[in-house]
Design a protein that fits this description.
The complex is a heterodimer of chains A (158) and B (116). With 158 residues, chain A is an alpha+beta fold. Chain A is built from 4 helices and 8 strands, in the order E-E-H-H-E-E-E-E-E-E-H-H. In chain A, strands 1-2-8-7-6-5-4-3 form an 8-stranded antiparallel sheet, covered by helices on one side. Chain A is globular, with a radius of gyration of 16 Å. In chain B, strands 1-2 form a two-stranded antiparallel ribbon. Classes of the chains: A alpha+beta (158), B mainly alpha (116). The interface between A and B is large, with 53 and 38 residues.
């Protein structure tokens, strides 16, 4: 924790593809980042929007495994998410992601973990959804929060 | 507001309309100028412009004879704001992950065992 560089998140939304790419570096070796992403004890400590409590109901981080969890906000509203772990590898984690309130929507999320010098790791998350409109709704849902009920639940997709 | 957001989403979901918006960001243009590079009629481009105009993304001058189309930049800036908002939410999540990583020891995880 000495003079750690400021790690910032970048977001890329391709104008022609229904994707969102997040890139972030971490001051920790790849194995540790991988563990924080998969360990059922650690995941609830950071996953989910601010102020929500995450409860893992199913969490089988194996290739071909599945997961389901609930997120409860400070007002007690509870929503559920589920998906499959398509592939779990030291350098790659591929999963599907669905918000149960929007069951036809599914995102294919590929996390790539790249080892950097100095025991650091670069994480890239590429999310692919059905079409540009859905992608834009996901991007905008944070903005729409509190403005429109219709998009409020999509905020949970974040 | 819901309607406006829906219209903006729908308007920008179409590749031709995205292209029109990209070209208008370089400067105002008439319908004929906008239609020139496409293999479609001026009427079809007019329809696209109607959708963009209903979404508040494009306006047309009433007075000038050429009636050029104009990109309403402040509405289009919403996209940038959406992305920035999304980025900040992700950043919050990853800051929490930073704290988790800093607090972890290097022992292998018992729960995961010999997985992968």
């Amino acid at each position: 924790m000495t003079a750690s560089t400021k790690n910032t998140t970048t977001v890329e939304a391709d104008p022609n593809l229904p994707t969102i790419k997040l890139v972030r570096e971490f001051d920790a070796p790849r194995e540790r980042v991988h563990r924080a992403w998969t360990d059922p004890e650690l995941v609830p400590r950071w996953l989910g929007p601010h102020g929500t409590t995450i409860e893992l109901l199913t969490w089988d981080t194996r290739t071909g495994g599945s997961y389901r969890y609930s997120a409860t906000d400070c007002d007690g509203n509870k929503v559920y998410f589920f998906g499959s772990f398509h592939e779990i590898r030291a350098d790659r984690l591929v999963q599907t992601f669905t918000f149960e309130g929007y069951p036809d929507g599914v995102s294919l999320d590929t996390l790539t973990l790249e080892e950097l010098d100095g025991g650091r790791t670069r994480a890239t998350i590429l999310s692919l959804v059905e079409n540009l409109q859905t992608r834009d709704m996901i991007l905008a849902s944070g903005m729409a929060k509190g403005v429109t009920e219709g998009y409020e639940k999509l905020d949970q997709l974040l | 507001m819901t309607d406006q957001l829906s219209r903006v989403f729908a308007a920008l979901a179409d590749p031709t309309r995205r292209d029109i918006v990209a070209r208008l960001s370089a400067g105002d243009a008439t319908v004929n100028e906008l239609a020139a590079p496409y293999d479609v009629s001026v009427q079809a481009v007019s329809k696209h412009l109607k959708v963009l105009s209903d979404a508040g993304l494009v306006s047309r001058s009433k007075d000038a004879q050429r009636r050029p189309c104009h990109l309403e930049a402040e509405v289009f800036d919403l996209m940038t704001k959406w992305i920035e908002r999304y980025r900040r939410q992700a950043e919050e999540r990853f800051s929490r992950l930073d704290a988790v990583l800093a607090a972890m020891d290097d022992k292998p995880n018992r729960a995961q065992g010999a997985a992968s």
